[in-house]
Design goal:
- There is one protein chain.
- α4 (105-142) packs parallel to α6 and α5 (151-178) runs antiparallel to α6 (185-209).
- Helices cover 78% and strands 0% of the residues.
- With 287 residues, it is an all-alpha fold.
- The protein is built from 8 helices and no strands.
Length: 287
Amino acid sequence: MLDEHPLDDDVARLATRVEKARGRLAYQFDPALTGALSEEELNAERELAERIRTQNREQRWKQAEATAEASDRARHTSEAIEKADIRDLLLARKAIAAQRRESSPHARLASLYRHRSWSLGALAGVVAAGMLWSAVNVQHNIAPGGPDDPLYWFSYLLEAMISVSLIIIMIGTNKVTEWGVLDNRSQVAAAEVALLALTVGLNTYPYMSAGRWFDAAMHGVAPVMIGVALLIHDAASARYGRAITFATEQVRSLPDPSSHDPLPEPQPTLDDSDDRPVAVGVAPQWA
């Protein structure tokens, strides 16, 4: 009897073990055993989900920025195209206006008059600059002593008399030439030559008497330029005057561009003394 108890215990333990193995066999292939995540895995998955959401937000922001930049570029491109179209339209209008001015006799006459005024004004400026230089140079030659010398101030009057005479000749010749008055040209030319010779002499005589030819030539540039400007002024005034006269004759027969009213059609007039019979159905013949 003592030997039977250990055997019973072993059988009981074995039966218990078999029962447990059978119970374990029923659950050991359950997916829950391998699918369940540990705490570390749960934390890792949480961190991964946060990083994915952060990346998605960054990508959405970059996409929004790219869309805004593309919209800005499209708007800037449209504005640039519109500005280019406006510039082309303005240039086209300017080209049409320039072509109209070039082909219009009235515009050509106005352009000729503007060029005449500008050219003669520039020549007058050259003459004025030369006269100022000559006045200072003559004053230095005649009265180099300083303001205490009475000739220091009166020497300016000497050059002023010459300059005023030349200006009167220049302006007067221009004005009378516009009306075709060309009388006493030889007397005017002689007066111009005499005045220019006088002002050249006053500017250069101290240097010529001392044999300083370079200084004489340098101080003679201004009065010589006055003479050259007067010659050019005379020639330009005459040429512009003839051109304006010729252009005016061409424009005179054309309609005024500032008037938009059509010209009236000429109507035939019947002479009261015309008693010639007119046949029926035949157009009358006007005298």
